[in-house]
């Protein structure tokens, strides 16, 4: 348990090493919320993206480059302009929201997995790494990948690319809706668990509970998040809550 706390502190104090260098705007609040919980912290994330990725003629992805990328819905013309600089092979992609969360215990991972599955992320799962590291991967089935350029030559018409853009934009709308559902379900679950745990500990003649401490601050890379101190045993109630309240 102490190792988890050290890993979390180290992870949240480090700079964001991704190419973008920051958390995507659509999931910033969600990531901050999860990192504010005692038994979880995020290790990587993407809110979802529409992109064109160029590979060399031997399909070596590591030597390829992004010709176009957006974390929102896109316009056809901006995409077409990006294709003018294409070399080699290229694919048009939609990649949905993905989130990796390190969890303190297997029970914590199972609880968050249940929330992900109930929110529509059917490809989610738990990976048990070295030294009992429990990583939850939140994934969906919305991916799309279509080859559109081969050896510098466009394989499809602009009309077909317009069709791909329409499909990708629809997928992006659905993707953002599912993110909100996942976040809302997570907040609702935790509030319900808090009330359930507090009710179970309450005694008729017990003195009035002292007010919570002032908000603390934790670092998220170069960002700082104020949050109310969480009860240390809330996560411990999650598994029991699911067993007795969720069919």
UniProtKB/TrEMBL annotation:
Enzymatic reactions: 4-demethyl-7-[(3S)-3-amino-3-carboxypropyl]wyosine(37) in tRNA(Phe) + S-adenosyl-L-methionine = 7-[(3S)-3-amino-3-carboxypropyl]wyosine(37) in tRNA(Phe) + S-adenosyl-L-homocysteine + H(+)
Molecular function terms, GO-annotated: methyltransferase activity
Entry EC number(s): 2.1.1.282
Domain (tRNA wybutosine-synthesizing protein): residue spans on this chain: 8-187
EC category: transferase
Pathway as given in its UniProt record: tRNA modification; wybutosine-tRNA(Phe) biosynthesis
GO annotation, biological process: methylation; tRNA processing
Region (Disordered): 195-218
Keywords, sorted A to Z: Methyltransferase, S-adenosyl-L-methionine, Transferase, tRNA processing
A Pfam family that the UniProt record links to this protein: TYW3
Protein purpose: Probable S-adenosyl-L-methionine-dependent methyltransferase that acts as a component of the wybutosine biosynthesis pathway. Wybutosine is a hyper modified guanosine with a tricyclic base found at the 3'-position adjacent to the anticodon of eukaryotic phenylalanine tRNA.
Protein family (similarity comment): Belongs to the TYW3 family.
Protein name stated in the entry: tRNA wybutosine-synthesizing protein 3 homolog
Species annotation: Actinia tenebrosa
């Amino acid at each position: 348990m102490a190792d988890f706390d050290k890993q979390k502190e180290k992870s949240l104090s480090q700079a964001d090493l991704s190419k973008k260098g920051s958390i995507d705007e659509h999931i910033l609040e969600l990531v901050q919320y999860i990192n504010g919980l005692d038994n979880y912290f995020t290790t990587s994330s993407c809110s979802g993206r529409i992109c064109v990725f160029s590979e060399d003629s031997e399909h070596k992805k590591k030597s390829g480059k992004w010709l176009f990328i957006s974390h929102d819905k896109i316009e056809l013309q901006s995409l077409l302009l990006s294709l003018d600089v294409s070399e080699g092979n290229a694919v048009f992609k939609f990649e949905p929201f993905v989130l990796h969360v390190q969890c303190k215990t297997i029970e914590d991972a199972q609880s968050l997995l249940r929330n992900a599955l109930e929110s529509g992320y059917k490809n989610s799962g738990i990976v048990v790494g070295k030294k009992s590291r429990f990583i939850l991967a939140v994934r969906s089935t919305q991916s799309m990948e279509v080859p559109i350029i081969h050896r510098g030559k466009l394989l499809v018409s602009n009309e077909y690319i317009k069709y791909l853009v329409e499909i990708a934009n629809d997928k992006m709308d659905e993707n953002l809706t599912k993110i909100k559902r996942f976040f809302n379900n997570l907040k609702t679950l935790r509030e319900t668990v808090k009330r359930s745990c507090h009710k179970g500990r309450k005694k008729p003649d017990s003195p009035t509970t002292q007010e919570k401490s002032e908000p603390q601050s934790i670092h998220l890379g170069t960002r700082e998040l104020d949050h109310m101190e969480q009860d240390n045993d809330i996560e411990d109630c999650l598994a029991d809550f699911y067993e007795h309240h969720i069919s």
